[in-house]
UniProtKB/TrEMBL annotation:
It comes from Saccharopolyspora phatthalungensis. InterPro entries: HAD-like_sf (IPR036412), HAD_sf (IPR023214), PGP-like_dom2 (IPR023198). It comes from the Bacteria. This is Haloacid dehalogenase. The lineage of its organism: Bacteria, Bacillati, Actinomycetota, Actinomycetes, Pseudonocardiales.
Length: 179
């Protein structure tokens, strides 16, 4: 299982710019965190305002995708390599479904068949991992704290993606899988 943003694709700048276009500062502590967990508080607990801002951010993001190249990261090559060797490889994200679909169409349309969930909070990702395999597996995330929260007290092992090479990341995943 792979998180999408920051593991498969480098979207930080595009997401930051989309939020900036609607007047929201996306600082590092909010990166990778589902909007539902922080944007309502940012909007003085006005859920309707938070939804409107998020919808506006989504439109800005979709527009930016038409003008911006999204770069893949080592996680993308590792996921494709493991998939080609017969491993079950799925993708989870806090990203909005519409944005993720447009991004995957631009970067690698075959990934759509491996997309297991979008718009997921940490609790949603944790639940999805359990549904995919109660027996566990390996989950790769670029946000260590979120990854720990998602995998702790479960049969899933976390690999923290922090810019490793394809070879290094593959080695870490295989080591965690065979633990």
């Amino acid at each position: 299982m792979f998180d999408v943003d920051g593991v498969l694709i480098d979207t930080f700048e595009i997401v930051r710019r989309a939020y900036a276009e609607v007047g929201v500062d996306l600082h590092d502590q909010r990166w990778g965190v589902a909007w539902q967990t922080w944007l309502p508080e940012y909007c003085d607990n006005d859920l309707d305002r938070a939804r409107v801002l998020h919808d506006q951010k989504t439109e800005a993001h979709l527009d930016l995708l038409t003008r911006t190249t999204v770069n893949t990261l080592a996680g993308a090559q590792v996921a494709d390599s493991l998939h080609s060797r017969g491993w079950t490889v799925k993708f989870l994200t806090a990203g909005t479904r519409q944005v993720v679909h447009q991004t995957f169409h631009a970067v690698n349309p075959s990934w759509l068949g491996r997309l297991a969930g979008t718009d997921l909070t940490s609790a949603g990702k944790r639940q999805m991992l359990g549904e995919i395999s109660a027996g566990g597996g390996v989950y790769v995330d670029d946000n260590r704290d979120l990854g720990v929260a998602i995998t702790e007290d479960s049969a899933w092992n976390l690999v923290h993606f922090r810019g490793q090479t394809e070879e290094e990341l593959t080695t870490e995943i295989v080591e965690q899988w065979t633990r």
